[in-house]
Description:
mainly alpha; globular; 3-stranded antiparallel β-sheet; Endonuclease III, domain 1; Arc Repressor Mutant, subunit A; Endouclease-III_FeS-bd_BS; 51% helix; 2% strand; binds iron/sulfur cluster
Amino acid sequence: MLRIGTMNDTNTTYDTAVRDADFDDFADSATAVTSDASDADEIATTLAQWWQTNARDLPWRFGRTTPWGVLVSEVMSQQTQMGRVVPYWTAWMDRWPDAAALADAPKSDVITAWGRLGYPRRALRLQECAHVIAYDYADELPHTYDELLALPGIGDYTASAVLSFAFGERIAVVDTNIRRVLSRAFVGVESLGGSASPAERALAKRLLPDDDSAKCRRFDRPSVVWNQAVMELGATVCTAKSPLCEACPIAGKCAFLRNGRPGLGQRRTRPRQRFQGTDRQVRGLVLNALRGLPDGETVLDRKSVERLWKDHVQLDKCIASLDEDGLIEILPGGGVRLPV
Ligand code: SF4
């Protein structure tokens, strides 16, 4: 039985330099995988079993959607929790089931359908991506990392995730959740956020299970299950601030737990900015007002715009930035509308 209450979670003084040295030593070692090399295989087996019974039943999982559907889910989930994404993804895929359908949709429809997913520039980038897939790749997602990475709005994480989750390729997927779980379980130190370091990428690669693809459906391949299970554990159990070690299937093998969870919750990045009063809030108010216009109306006149936010200097700055991002158009007289 684990005794989490005895651990020093919050008062640990933690030296970042020591932590980095630990990680680099670990990643540089060709053989080190926790204190016992067999732990890695055991953890992979345990996590695969845990995944079978604990994976959230999201509609883009288990081979139930197209590669395009997987890509849409990944773009929507980049800065939004997966649970919140489901209704948006479902409506989006009903309306635009493939890249060709989205490519030429009116921008105003695309921005409206993005709803409250946040960071709406992602919607326009996704449409640009759809355009390239539809017209340069005959509406089929490319299958190589370099081609995926060259698509608008697609970075290393999304390219790797699509290769793994949609095509069953053996490739290490490195996102915040995966980095946190691997750092904690295998190196025994906290993952500090920021960009993935070469050592973290090397660790993710080294731990990726081998595939015997001839025997498995794409989404059952060991490397795919591993990527998804580690990510899911990070999202639901091994969370940043309050990991549920009591409920964790790999607690018995976790180096971080064994070390007393040193530096739990410590992060290299700045704390997230509060939302209230920010430009993000003001931009959201303008977009939501436009999305909420009655059928047949497309323009929010200047008076209506001014009613949205008292500080008109901030309001105008936000309207200018929305216009620059291509998310709205400013009309003569100061009214605004979604782009067509
Ligand atoms: S035991 Fe705790 S810290 Fe270790 S992997 Fe599980 S949830 Fe994370």
